[in-house]
Amino acid sequence: MICTVCGSDRAKNFVRKMDGREVTLTLCPNCYARLYPEQESADLFTSFVGHAPTGAADKACKVCGTTLADFRRTGLLGCAACYEAFREELLPTIRYVQGKLMHEGKSPSGAAERNFDNVMDLARAQEELRAEIGRAERARDDEEVKRLKARLAAVNRKLYGGEAQ
C-alpha cells in the first residue's frame, strides 16, 4: 500500500474514530505519528501488550514490513503473516485479552453433546425450509406455507433441544 500523504510504499491502514464513525486511513508510520501526535504509547492497548524485549522492537514482518514497534503503537497488524512473524510477542497478549490461546469456535447450545454432522444437516434443512417458505409465500400458496412452517418447527425443536424458534 502507498501512503496517501507522502507516497511511501510502507503504508498500512489505520482505523480512527472521526465525528462518531470509524474512518480508515492509509498512512506510513511516520505520517501517522506526524498527523496524530496525541496518540500516546501508554494507552489501554499498550498496557495489555507491555514492553518489547531488547532488540525485539526491530523485528519486522517480511511480507508487509510492519514492525513490532508499529504494532505496539497502534495495536494493528499489517497482514496475516504478522501473526507468525510476531508469534512469541503476541501469545501473552492474546492469552491476556481472550483468556485462551486456542480458538474453540461457536456452536448451538448443547451441540457438544449431539452429533456434529446431525447438527449441520439440521442447520442446512432449516435454511432450505426457510427458502421454500419464502417461495411459497411469494406464490401465495397458504397450505404449502403452513405445511413447511410445521416442518421448520420440527427441525428447530431438534436443533435447539425442544425450543421451537
Report the portion of residues in β strands.
5-15%
Please indicate the count of domains: 3
Largest sheet: 2 strands, antiparallel
Say how many strands there are. 2
**How much is the radius of gyration in Å?**
25 Å
Average pLDDT rating? 76
In percent, how helical is the residue content? 40-55%
Give a verbal description of the structure.
This protein folds into three domains: 1-39, no CATH class; 40-105, no CATH class; 111-159. The chain has helices at residues 29-35, 44-49, 68-74, 81-85, 87-98, 116-138, 142-159; strands at residues 12-18, 21-27. It is elongated. The protein contains seven helices and two strands, in the order ββααααααα. The two termini are 47 Å apart. α6 runs antiparallel to α7. By secondary structure, it is mainly α.
List key phrases describing it.
165 residues, mainly alpha, 3 domains, 7 helices
